[in-house]
Amino acid sequence: MSALRDALRDLPDAVFADLLESDEGYVLVIDLPGATAETTEVLVEDGRIEIEGRREKAVPEGFEYVREDRPLFLDAELPLPTDADGAGADAEIDRGVLEISLPKRESDVSRTIPVDDADDEGDA
């Protein structure tokens, strides 16, 4: 998980993100004001999570930007925690707050592996 924590620190200063952990999984919360489900894409692939979000900004009639510091796009690629199950991930966005839930993989459960006798077909 430290790789994900480090990657979150490297996000641009204008991006606010929280990472939460429980026994069952992780929740990554990212503020994307102005973004919607239609303008946000989340992809889990090869041990990484890719987030692309686009916000809509309207300029009131008769005004123009003197200074523009709020980016229109977020394009982030973050490593998954090693125990996260990317296949079970889901995401939702509510009023510009993106929540990505990543369940933890079940820990290796010990089990007995049956041992079969080899066929004696080649023996005469």
Automatic annotation (TrEMBL):
Q: Which UniProt keywords apply?
A: Stress response
Which segments cross the bilayer? none
Q: Which PROSITE patterns match?
A: SHSP
Q: Report the domain of life of the source organism.
A: Archaea
Name all SHSP domain ranges.
6-118
The answer to whether keyword ATP-binding applies is no
**Database matches in Pfam families:** HSP20
Q: Which InterPro entries match?
A: A-crystallin/Hsp20_dom, HSP20-like_chaperone
Q: Is-annotated flag, keyword Nucleotide-binding? A: no
Family of this protein: Belongs to the small heat shock protein (HSP20) family.
What is the protein name for this chain?
Heat shock protein Hsp20
Q: Which organism is it from?
A: Halorubrum tebenquichense DSM 14210
Q: Recite the lineage of the species.
A: Archaea, Methanobacteriati, Methanobacteriota, Stenosarchaea group, Halobacteria
